[in-house]
Design goal:
This protein has about 240 residues and is of the alpha+beta class. The protein is built from four helices and 15 strands. It has a six-stranded antiparallel beta barrel. A four-stranded antiparallel sheet has the order 9-10-15-14, with helices on one face. Strands 11-12-13 form a three-stranded antiparallel sheet. A hairpin with a 4-residue loop joins strand 14 and strand 15. Helix 2 packs across helix 3. The protein is globular. The mean pLDDT is about 95. The structure holds zinc ion. Zinc ion binds next to helix 2. The site of zinc ion has 6 residues, from helix 2.
Length: about 240
Amino acid sequence: MTTETLFRDDAYRRETPATVVFADARGVALDRTVFYPQGGGQPGDQGEIALEGGATIPIVNTIYDADRKTILHVPAADAALPAPGAGVVARIDWSRRYKRMRAHTALHLLSVALPYPVTGGSVGDAEGRLDFDCEATLDKAEVERRLNELIALDAPVGQRWIADEELDANPGLVKTMSVKPPRGTGRVRLVTIETLDVQPCGGTHVASTGEIGRASVTQIEKKGRINRRVRIVLSEQ
Ligand SMILES: [Zn+2]
């Protein structure tokens, strides 16, 4: 089955009615969801699935099934599983997700502030890191200044879909050497930060860069001769 991914077109959607397709020890599959499944350096969402009658199932993680099309909502240990066909409401832990949306978008801007190939990265709750293929010595204060300048532009973040062939014809669009954009449906989502950045990405982003808030560069580590790991933390909002 293919779960309909509502978070791709609207990352701000916190809940949706849905129907249970199946539920087993691995997780609960719904026909549609607002839960982001772990991938591309971003953790899977937490939240709850509310049943008719008021009971709720705590969801501790969200992952793709082996087919990479079915999304599994991983329930807390010992949670009772819903029956196939049941109508439910899927609701994410919004405050956590929003911190990840801000951090994820900040990492796009970090890759603009530091225009080197990206070899890895990870998104956390209002914090994250990127690894760059870069031999230069980076100055923490200077990187932080550039990053906050970009955030302050309050540039709109949007998206458009292109065919796989168009991406293959423009390999320069892919900045991340380790994280390949999600393929297999014949089209790829490009995330655009107006006038600053375009790259294929399946993650969740804020609508404009001003929502990121103040960012601090907390550490720049040398991981080998040509690898620099840059960590950022966002201020509380
Ligand atoms: Zn992204």
